[in-house]
């Protein structure tokens, strides 16, 4: 199998690292060679977080260059725009509609860009946008928006749904399994 490249982007505290852990574990259980690389940046202060996930028959490097991502999973609109150049032609951007103001916006030194996802659609990008935060709240907690987005990505990953469900069951804390599975289903069906 040719190497597949997934970029997971968001803001510190959104659960991007758990999403990448689940992906890596699922792909390994399917027998793929997997490389995962996390870049935290100022994640503890609400900064950008990016994780590279690469899988296939043989993967030599965890790094994804611009124009190579088959899929970008974005937990926040501005992060979608920031990392869009990494998406390859014909790739898929899965984006939450959530908006988290960065520090310059909070401080009044900048404005949050208007209509980010609409502008991305105009570029004829394969865009799947969903209100992951609302779906997570429907599942029981805002903390599982990451699992909603993972569920939305599954139809584009070529791994059956049941394998993902088993990976979630075996990875998340036992007290959160049902909430996470509900979040996964809501994302998958969105």
Task: Explain this structure.
By secondary structure, the protein is of the alpha/beta class. The chain contains eight helices and six strands; from the N terminus they run E-H-E-E-E-H-E-H-H-E-H-H-H-H. The chain has a six-stranded mixed sheet with strand order 2-3-1-4-5-6, sandwiched between helices. The longest helix is centred in the first third of the chain and has 14 residues, at 16-29. The mean pLDDT is 92.
Topology:
Layout: E1 4-11, H1 16-29, E2 33-39, E3 48-56, E4 69-74, H2 77-83, E5 87-96, H3 103-106, H4 116-122, E6 126-130, H5 132-139, H6 145-153, H7 161-171, H8 177-188
Parallel strand pairs: 1-4, 4-5, 5-6
Antiparallel strand pairs: 1-3, 2-3
Helix pairs in contact: 1-7, 5-6, 5-8, 6-8
CATH class: Alpha Beta
DSSP strand (E) fraction?
15-25%
> What spatial order of strands do you see in the largest sheet?
2-3-1-4-5-6
Give unreliable regions as ranges.
none
Structural class: alpha/beta
Domains, number: 1
Quick recap:
By secondary structure, the protein is α/β, with parallel strands linked by helices.
Defining traits:
190 residues; alpha/beta; Pyruvate-ferredoxin Oxidoreductase, domain 3; 6-stranded mixed beta sheet; 6 strands; 24% strand
């Amino acid at each position: 199998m040719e190497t597949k490249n997934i970029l997971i982007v968001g803001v510190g505290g959104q659960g991007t690292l758990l999403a990448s852990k689940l992906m890596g574990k699922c792909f390994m259980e399917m027998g793929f060679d997997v490389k995962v690389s996390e870049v935290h940046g100022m994640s503890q202060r609400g900064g950008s977080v990016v994780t590279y996930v690469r899988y296939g028959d043989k993967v030599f490097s965890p790094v994804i260059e611009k124009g190579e991502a088959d899929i970008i999973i974005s937990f926040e609109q501005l992060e979608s725009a920031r990392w869009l150049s990494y998406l390859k032609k014909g790739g898929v951007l899965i984006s939450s509609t959530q908006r988290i103001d960065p520090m310059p916006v909070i401080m009044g030194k900048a404005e949050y860009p208007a209509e980010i996802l609409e502008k991305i659609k105009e570029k004829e990008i394969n865009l799947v946008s969903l209100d992951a935060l609302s779906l997570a709240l429907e599942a029981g907690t805002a903390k599982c928006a990451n699992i909603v987005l993972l569920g939305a990505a599954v139809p584009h990953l070529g791994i059956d749904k049941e394998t993902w469900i088993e990976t979630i069951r075996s990875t998340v804390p036992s007290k959160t399994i049902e909430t996470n599975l509900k979040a996964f289903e809501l994302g998958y069906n969105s």
